[in-house]
Amino acid sequence: MSEVSAAAAVPAEGEPMAPLKSGLPRGALAWILQQGARDPYVILITIYIFSPYFSRVLVGDPVAGQALVANISTTYGLLTALTAPLLGAMIEQYGPRKPMLGGVLAVMVPALVALWWAMPAGGLPLMATSALLIVLGLVYNWGDVLSNSLLGRAAGDVPGRAALISGLGYAVANGLSVALLIFMLWGMVLPGQVDWPGVPHAPLFGLDPARNEPSRISGPMAAAVMLLGAIPFFLWTPDAARTGRSWMASLRAGVGLLRDIFANLRGHRDVALFLGARMLYNDGMTALLVFGGLLAAGLMKWGALEMLAYGISLSVFGVIGGLVAPWFDRVLGPRKAVQIEIAGSLAVLVATLGMGREKILYFWTYDPAAHAPIWNGPLFRTAPELIYLGLGLLIAVFVTAQYASSRTLLIRLCPADKTAAFFGLYALSGTATVWLGSLLVAVATAIFKSQVGGFLPIAALLGLGFCGLFLVRGGDPET
User: Cβ contacts of residue 210 below 8 Å, gap of 6+?
Assistant: First the structure.
């Protein structure tokens, strides 16, 4: 791992990093919690709850819904690609990240709350809801640039700690998401459907399933968790020291820094190759997240109950992904770890595309009427459903581990004094082709008239990114 410079590693004045008994400083634990509190937005809104509701109810057709979600992702992906690198370079010149992260919260929290009024009739129109989702996607990506640029400061000058914190951040994110999904399942979806001990007789808070209120409440819940999780971060995680430049002077200096970084990428060959490869494979990973819930709901014809249980299960295994990533990074080095994680995701995706309610792995047909249920529970009663669930669990492990290992690999490769600027390029590499990948999903879905056909470009992006990492030197195991 590249040494973290003193300027990047030490806390700002007046912000001591007192270590706790856990061995991690207080600022690191606060960074982990903040990361964990941000990501339920992804789980609840973009994957398992709101996005399937948006497609199934607001749009009213799974195929057309997948195409519209792809167009939304295309739009905020383009906007992120145009703005995130400049944001990273500018904030490097300005210094403190927390003021702008406060602005991110000030936009995201009200926008998430507003999703409560996204209804087929009498609420937000479909296009207004689409605009909110675009704003949320863009501002969330800005927050990633700012938050990730403080990872080195949260870790301090301790070898291996950044990898541990990065993995724990995703583990906590999935753990919080599991807790939220279980709460929604227990208190909002199961009541009235099962007569189990401990399950309320009616949904909590007077929510009406007929008005899709258990799905719409996901926006306000994500907002509350994000806001609460940010409080320790703003109190304790070290921020960068102020440089003395104004916002406009920082913007001008950031443009110059960005120009220099692009001009000198030849001097950072391995970073450039890594970012180029990530431009491809991360697009595939992001598409797996954005469209995975839609695919499950469409192929398996799952409703809110099944999607909640599916989300809970995948989030639990996502915790495992966040925990194994630091071990992969340490034993194999982050470059080989990322390659293994991509290869695993690709293999499981190919298997998943061969599934259906009446089909198993392309070649075996399954007649639900001719087979007794595997078990007598309220969901996942057939062999195809259980196999699809198992494949989804594996994808959750690989995708989560890849996000953590990729972040560690960038820290290993990039100059320590330009971390925020390179995380701006990191965001660019993760979003510059998101608009293209989403567009390809939309086009392929329209051409093949099939959700499965829409996923073929995702498999291609994963394969190309995997091959590109062979050109990267560095990222070896720590000695």
Answer: none
